[in-house]
Amino acid sequence: MPVHTSDSSQGSRGKGVGLGLALASALAFGGSGVAAKPLIEAGLDPLHVVWLRVAGAALVMLPLAVRHRALPRRRPALLAGFGLLAVAGVQACYFAALSRIPVGVALLVEYLAPALVLGWVRFVQRRPVTRAAALGVVLAAGGLACVVEVWSGLSFDALGLLLALGAACCQVGYFVLADQGSDAGDEAPDPLGVIAYGLLVGALVLTVVARPWSMRWSVLTGSAHLNGTAVPALALLGWIVLVATVVAYVTGVLSVRRLSPQVAGVVACLEAVIATVLAWVLLGEHLSAPQVAGGAVVLAGAFIAQSSAPARGSAEPVAAGGAERELSARGTAA
């Protein structure tokens, strides 16, 4: 028997909302570099910018942490893992990698995360992987290589590559942990509470790493230059905290709950495309023909992955999560 039309349309709407949230998250995350670069050029250390970003977002989300104060007793491992991996780990490893290898190489290695998510799903969770989802990852990774122009400055610094790979592994933790409890119904931890406590944990860890007491605080009282235009440093910091962190993490986690870690991970590759386009428009960093072509390939890979059909005979396909998994099970039972 076919699935009821109302159930099917509800599942389609849920997936559409999830895709929209994933795109919003990629847009928010992608805008962080455009705002952070002028602050760094004005004299702030990159790790200090990261600390300001996470600590500021933790303060914004603090009321939600108080509201969900029972969460640390219920899910301490989830909160600690999210803070260490999804918040502090990704940021610290990526910026440390930048000090040893080119930006393009570090970004490409970090965005191997969707492929690593597929490996986690296939070999750790032992769930089937659709060919379309795998193809989407391959296309996204190949397109990303063109976007960041990895051939323009390849370096084989072993420690730098390991740090970038560490950032990719931490990003896998972000997608996997964000999906925890997505099918647990009323027992699922509130995603906003998870984000709030994750930011608090991340801020504590980054305080030790970044040592903000040595920061040039006077930079924040002046202006930074955005493609020749003077912009208040505090305005750029506000964008980084409110949009590139709070909005980015909230929409990102909610998208994983409605899609799946692997599909959301591939859509997140659009962050590199968005970051490159924004740098072109706002910072005057022009796009080359290979970058434009690579961006189109990333878009194609993300679309193929999110629209892939369930594998034949698979109860839990790679391209379906949450409500979609339940819908698939209903159709099979019917």
TrEMBL record:
Task: Classify the protein's membrane topology as the record does.
Answer: Multi-pass membrane protein
One Pfam family, short name please? EamA
The listed locations are: Membrane
Q: Residues in domain EamA?
A: 18-147, 159-304
Q: Which residues cross the membrane?
A: 46-66, 78-97, 103-121, 133-152, 158-178, 190-210, 230-251, 263-283
Q: Which Gene Ontology cellular-component terms appear in the entry?
A: membrane
Coiled-coil positions = none
Q: Which SUPFAM superfamilies match?
A: Multidrug resistance efflux transporter EmrE
Say where the protein is mainly found: membrane
Renumbered residue ranges of the record's region Disordered: 313-334
Q: Which UniProt keywords apply?
A: Membrane, Transmembrane, Transmembrane helix
The source's domain of life comes to Bacteria
**Family in the record:** Belongs to the EamA transporter family.
Full protein name: Membrane protein
Question: In which organism is this protein found?
Answer: Streptomyces filipinensis
